[in-house]
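The records we work with from here on pair a chain with its fold. A complete example follows; check for yourself that the lines match position by position.
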Amino acid sequence: MIDLDDGVAADFLIEAGEIAERLGEELVALEQAPSDGELLNSVFRGFHTIKGGAGFLELTPMVEACHAVEEAFGLVRSGKRSADAVLFDGAQALLDQVQRMLAALSSGRQPQSAPPEVLQPVLAWAGLLPMAEHPTVTHPAGDDLLAAFASADGPISDDEFEALLDRLNGAEPAAASPPPAVTVSPPAAARAASGSARVPSSDSGQLPDANRERSARAEPAAEPTLRIEAKRLDAMVNLVGELVLARNRFKALRKQIDGDEFDRAVTTLDVATTRLQNAVMKTRMQPIGRVFQRFPKLARDVARTLEKEVDLVLEGADTELDRTLVEALSDPLVHLVRNAIDHGIEMPDVRERLGKSRVGQVLLAARQEGDHIAIEVREDGAGMDPEALRRKAIEKGLLEPEAAARLSNDECLHLIFQPGFSTKAVVTEISGRGVGMDVVQSRIRELNGRIQIRSRPGEGTAFIVQVPLTLAILPALLIGAGGRTFALPLARVREVLHFDPRQLRWVDGAPILYRHEKALPLFSLREWLADAPAERPEHVVVMQSGPGQIGLRVDDVHGREEIVIKPLPTAMQSLKGYVGAALTGDGSMALILDIDALRHGAD
């Protein structure tokens, strides 16, 4: 069992995990472009590198799994065999096993060997007998080699690193097989950022359009990088947050203190703090491609299981956002992509009868919109019928017929976020549109984001997830009610109005505000807080909620401010309607409202 406190072992887990994530994408790309020599070499090197590190740490199960794949692709590199569906299926299955082993090691458990039914097909393909017990590895020069590695001036190349691993395993580095004569092209991850990645469901051998054009250009020199522990970055962000609070306090005092010198000093502090804040936040930014790179393999596996044909198109993989958001978005996006393939894309023969291509298309795209990130999951499948959803909601007892009849088409689409709502008679183990979709929405809300749906029957469905660039500092609108201050995420605010009682109407006992010939559901923050009605003029904050807008009646609107998000006090964590707390410029605490939860709590 390796010691995770050991620096070499910890570095191996990090590096091997990153290589394994990349291998999933590269295997999919190689399956659709088997003549791509660069991809073939990259896949071979990836498994070889993991095997070398695992051998040094005496992780026999991982060595066995990587060795089988490495030997199989070695035959492909030497031209002795051609890669086929059996090899790619087996390699993907063993890659899954390697990732499970890494997860076990990270949690302090001993990794288990790959099951024979997973390991044997690849060994048989490569013409190998099952590996004997891994021999004891001696490292006569191990200490010297590690010392040389640690003292190396700058990063070493891939070939140098692999040679080092070979020497640590007591073997001379094998001579590299000459790669097939192909033009040099960017790696799969780079292509995915600007083009498309094909997810085949059969061994068609066809190339996607994005892979037909090749450019013979040298890779740019890598920028020097420095690995920093996440907790140190988090500490820096916390310190910048404290500085932002101090800046806000000085800006509040500026209104009370006259003097040009003080005003100039506050302005200088404001500019410097903003620049430092932006610089520190950039250190925590990561490309969302780190999440995207797992989806070609995921889509391939789901499509194979369901016997569907799917093109997965990735766009905007270089879009950056806070690392905590990159990690938090992984599970919701996995659920949405699985749903898109399972319940969005029709079976190939059904698509042909409908006059569509047998191959369905799923788009996973990211783009920056101001201080937010928009991530879209779109497919060209069957789409959702609002009327069918309306009937299903009535059938399940989620809505009364009268209430269901008043829903717009967009509001009907959002019924799938109701807990337990499903449009399918049989729930599959892959996914279920509506089964767990409430969890997806809840997770997005926790990230101060929102999710929208656009769908047309027969044309497909799109889910658009919008989240802030960072969870540490949030642009907010500060409001007041009952003598207390609250914060609303500024991205959800559409406009602020003076409340005019003459525009108030009532429908089924619920207040409605007519604006621009549209009925706007109206909620009172005072009523939600169980306070007495206001005795002075009020304001209405128009906010985006689900597919539509709502109006929130408040006493005061204090203005825009960047707030540092803090967790709720323990005593308040069970309360609905709040997503966090913040200190404002005047030193008071403002609770951050969850407008969707507040709305449903008032219904």
Remarks:
- The chain is about 45% helix and 20% strand.
- The first helix runs from residue 7 to 32.
- The chain has four domains: 7-185, 230-284, 287-468, 473-602.
